[in-house]
Amino acid sequence: MPCDVVSIGSTPTALAATHLDGVTEVRAGVYVMLDLVMHNVGVNQPSEIALSVLTTVIGHQRKKGWAIVDAGWMAMSRDRGTQRQKQDFGYGLVCAEDGEVVGDYVMSGANQEHGIISRNGTPDYDIEARFPIGTRLRLLPNHACATGAQHPVYHAIAADGSVESWPRFYGW
């Protein structure tokens, strides 16, 4: 039976395919950005994730060992795709502003506009010294598609530090 459209999907398939003879469409998901879900299935390293959310430490919960940031689930999405995987990253993995992963810190909790940064769910009573108020952090997302959809524009940072703003396409 003839089939004019043959569509396949998934980032791992797009990365592993040696040929796509007969395929007319590849829907590769997070192929361009990558994310923590793909990291957990062995597709990429955190340093290869192209999408992050820049946030600022705005407070602390000293008794709980938490830092509070100005990015909640409205910035990261509610996607907890790593929750049932080999490593749970909460709502995202914490990096320094330059993109380097900062130990085992994650955004372990979130409300609409604020996030909780903790050491993989355990208290860090030195967190105020580690992340003083005003510290800028980057959060790597569980699911790049869901996080990216939360923002109207992407700020693309080139290797030389220059920045371009790319508006996001809306609609289906």
TrEMBL record:
MF (Gene Ontology): D-serine ammonia-lyase activity
Domain spans labelled D-serine dehydratase-like: 50-158
SMART domains, per the entry: D-ser_dehydrat (SM01119)
Annotated InterPro entries: D-amino_acid_metab_enzyme (IPR051466), D-ser_dehydrat-like_dom (IPR026956), D-ser_dehydrat-like_sf (IPR042208)
GO biological process: D-serine catabolic process
Protein's name in the database: Alanine racemase
Naturally occurring in which organism (per UniProt): Caballeronia glebae
